Amino acid sequence: MRILIFIIWIALGIIYFFIWGMRENCCEINSGQLTPVLESTQNQTASSSRQNSSESESTTSISKPESLIASSALPVIGSTCLRFKWTDSEPLVVPCFTALKDSMVSSLQAGQILEIIGAYYEKENRIMASGDLGLLRASRIKELTVPSIPADNIRIRSKNLGDTTNINWLNVNLIDYRAVFQNDQVKELDDITLIYFKFGSNEGVNDVLVNQYVSHLANKMKNTENQISITGHTDDDASADHNLKLGLKRANIIKNLLTSKGIKPSRIKTNSKGEEMPIAPNDTEENRKLNRRVEVEILPSAKSQ
Questions:
Q1: Which end of the chain is more exposed for a tag (fewer CB within 10 A), N or C?
Q2: Rounded to an integer, what is the distance from CA 10 to the centroid of its chain?
Q3: How many Cα atoms sit within 13 Å of 251 on the Cβ side?
């Protein structure tokens, strides 16, 4: 019986060492193949990424991050140096953005800020459902522009491009920018520009900032057929009749500055609202300053006729 147990023990030992030897050989083979397989996969991925990037650059002039190359095929919209994937607020930036940013910086004069307008399509915004996609896009470009331009000197807006029927994605401009006047003397808004006056007078119109704006407006108007509407306003200090005349005087002063810079008087319409249309209550000096103003509006050609 002892001999039988000994024989069984020997047999089990032989089987055990045989199995162990097979396991080591198996693992050595797998271990030997593991690194090359990963390297091959990485090399193939890198090669594919480089190929995709090269193809993309030759056809769309866009350098895409690998995460975007690997993502689902969505339309890429936008032109020149900034493009976006459909419903995405993260820009696909190419090297020429540096030149674009330099252009933004050099476009600013004293008393101006940079306005960045981000555009979107209605369908994009509905699908995204996480806020105004145009503002998100403009906000990302603002982040890329700071600190070349201080954050306080950048204003962002959004623009709705409407429907997406028959869109040529490569020709869509999703980011626009412009230098706008925004200072104590001149505030350039969406459709009008406000020029502020000192109490009871026309003082302030010879200010450097006002003259810079008027020169800017004159240059802008020279290549158009548009007209300019200038409306004078006052606070309520003095009689209504006096304020009506004062408002017109202020409007005509701005008109004269424009004509001195080459704009024909026939293209400029002036009028006065006096104290009739305040934009703030006349209860404090700060509010009164807001009401002592001239409003300048560029009239589109269709509206001018």
A1: N
A2: 81
A3: 24
